[in-house]
Amino acid sequence: MTSADPAPRLALKESLHLERVHHDRCRTALAAMVDGAQEQVVVGEDVSASGADAEVLGYQLRSQAKEMRELPDGPLFFGKLEFDRGDHAGQAYHLGRLRITEHPAAPPLVVDWRAPVSRAFYQASARDPQGVAVRRRFGWAAGSKGESADLTGLEDEHLSKGDSGPSAIVAREIERPRVGPMRDIAATIQPEQDDLVRGDLALSVCVQGAPGTGKTAVGLHRAAYLLYTHPQRMRRGGLLVLGPNRTFLSYISQVLPALGETGVRQSTLQDEIARHPVTGTDARATAVLKHDPRMAEVLRRALYARATTAHVNSLEIKDGSYSWRVGAGELARIVADVREEEPPYGTGRERVRSRVVRCVQLQAERRAGPQNGAWVQRVSRSRVIGAFLDAVWPKVRPEEVVAELLGDQEKLAAAADGVLDAEEQKHLLWARPPRSWKSARWSAADLVLLDEAAGLVEHPEGYGHLVVDEAQDLSPMECRAIARRARFGSVTVLGDLAQGTTPWAARSWDTVLRHLGKPDAAVVPLTIGFRVPQAVVGLANRLLGRLDVEVPEGRSLRGDGELVLRPTPPDALPDAVVDAVRGSLAHEGPSGSSRPTRRGRVRQASTRPGSPRGAGRAGCAGERRTGRCGQGARVRPCGGRRACRDRGGGGTGAAPAVCRADPGGVAAGGGARAAAAVLARWRPPGGVWPSGETGGGRPWVCAVAAAPGERGGRPRSGQACSSSGSNCSSS
């Protein structure tokens, strides 16, 4: 067949037409499903069920209708399987993010990607076709809202004929720029990722992932898979996704809804354990100590020291004409036995109560016969037994335990004896203890102590499954807080030991899993990256030898594009950056030069007009070679020395602008994260600097970073810094 043969092109055109028709049919069916779910909620129907069951059914119907109404726009399927062998021989299935059918009893138009039959889409190969004759992937226009016309291509692999290879559609998806919130990867899940996603609910797993390997996406898709596969257990036990901060949660917030799951709780550990607002601070050494696992034993001792037999006296309980007596020895034995059992403190108090009542009940039954439940309840709540419990096992709040421990040197010394040395105890003590726990100024590190104490008093509510991201940054005490919420559930732990950022960052997953109460969880590495360019991954691999962690090197499938890494001595960095930007500005198209900088800042440089480096360079985020500032960054001359903020943009999210002299040409900066920093030429109209120029003739430059989402362009008309430099204002 020659290249001029029109048959392949006609076949492709016909296939695209048929698939677009099928997509239109799916869109119509989905609209009917949404209307039907809403109608069930509004109109309702008679069911044979108890009041409680009917309430549950109504809740489920409302939840289903809400989930379907909130489904995001987008293509309804991304793949197709045609089987020629096995149980599905002769069948073809379109795969999408949710099941679509024209009638509950009719064959599905689209099969959910989590269904068992869908697994072959991710796992089948020419070597092991798993009964698949043809695997088809669909190419959709970027940013498609799900219009059938956006279906622009398809790609077939004839697995039964040994035809299999790298997918161009998957490759384009990998290379596509990442902008905005995180997207789901249901269409591009790789076999090793699919194994993790479809792991059994009872199994806990830890994913050690190099940068850009999709570990977060794997965790979220595993959550969606468990919700689909075990709906009753997940609804009963609940599922919690824990992220490192709220910004991260905002970034991933659209993934689960896109997969049809809208009822999942997503939170941070700080929010989960926040019994009180954070109003205090700790020195670094103090915070590290409070996150130390030894504090768990100190708190346990401090709490159970309240349960004492030092002043136990016999009890005499009046019961009508009878009087029942329990000896001091028997009471002391009951308290000692319960302490040895180490139940939650609150449970222990009730256990002591029930055993004392049992002693009284045995005496009463020997004298007056069996006693009913009302009698047992009356004796249990008698003032005599209540006073006894207050003496030997008093009620306590977690705040009282922590406040007394941090505010009383003697109590801390007793609880920390043999656990913390004298210097460590000194670090823990509050400089000015509050009059009571109600006036205490709790620090962020105190929250983990409060949660530990609360867990000793009463077990917190648990979850059926927890997904924990960036787990390498968790302290042992934070891990214990998570473990209390996963006592009867499983966990999916995600992170990279080489990316730890906290003083207590983990060096070994074994340690993390032990503190999480899941020491037998499997640790599975992901080493193939899809987001980070190869050159960056290679550079990161070179740093692994200097880190006190053992993790495998990563590799990336994403090309470098025009990215060039140029080793540069620190002293030569300013000149090298300026030279690199000069070279970039000589070519058309977007450009960028990077060096470490604080997030949210704009790298800037300025020199005297006429100096060898040129006049008035100012850094702005998103600078393009056309001379325009992208991403809404604006650069204006400024006549003052003080920091200024942009009042021209207004609104939430506006980034600060900084006005300062820069005699060195490039402002110094630091920080652990790399952010784009671009230098551009800029001169005021006519080359005249404002009259407020100070600092020995050096021009002042005010670089204003745009608020998120603001469009790029030239500086706004009338935008300038005041002559005093105290602020930026719009004239």
Can you offer a commentary on this structure?
The protein is globular and about 110 Å long. 36% of the residues lie in helices and 14% in strands. It has a six-stranded parallel beta sheet. With 731 residues, the protein is α/β, with parallel strands linked by helices. α12 packs across α20 (444-457). The relative contact order is 0.08. α21 links the parallel β11 (465-468) and β12 (490-495). The model is unreliable at 596-731 (pLDDT under 50). Among the domains are: 7-165, no CATH class; 284-304 and 397-440, no CATH class; 315-392, no CATH class; 566-731, no CATH class. This is ATP/GTP binding protein. Residues 188-533 form the UvrD-like helicase ATP-binding domain. ATP binds at residues 209-216.
* Silhouette: globular
Total helical segments: 24
Structural class: alpha/beta
The major beta sheet can be summarized as:
6 strands, parallel
For the termini, the CA-CA separation is: 70 Å
| Strand arrangement in the largest pleated sheet | 8-7-11-12-6-13
Count the strands?
Answer: 24
Give short descriptive properties of this protein.
about 35% helix, about 725 residues, nucleotide-binding, 5-stranded mixed sheet, single chain, 6-stranded parallel sheet, alpha/beta, ATP-binding
In short:
Residues 145-165, 585-654, 708-731 are annotated as: Disordered. The chain is α/β, with parallel strands linked by helices and 731 residues long. Among the domains are: 7-165, no CATH class; 284-304 and 397-440, no CATH class; 315-392, no CATH class; 566-731, no CATH class.
Fold blueprint:
Elements: H1 7-43, H2 51-69, E1 79-83, E2 92-96, E3 111-112, H3 119-123, E4 132-140, E5 151-157, H4 168-175, H5 191-197, E6 205-209, H6 215-229, H7 231-237, E7 239-243, H8 246-252, H9 255-258, E8 265-268, H10 269-273, H11 284-290, H12 294-304, E9 315-319, E10 322-326, H13 328-341, H14 345-368, H15 373-380, H16 383-392, H17 398-407, H18 409-416, H19 422-428, H20 444-457, E11 465-468, H21 476-484, E12 490-495, H22 509-515, E13 522-526, E14 528-529, H23 534-543, E15 555-556, H24 573-585, E16 594-596, E17 618-619, E18 634-638, E19 657-660, E20 674-676, E21 679-680, E22 700-704, E23 719-721, E24 728-730
Helix pairs in contact: 1-2, 5-6, 6-7, 12-18, 12-20, 13-14, 17-18, 17-20, 20-21, 21-22
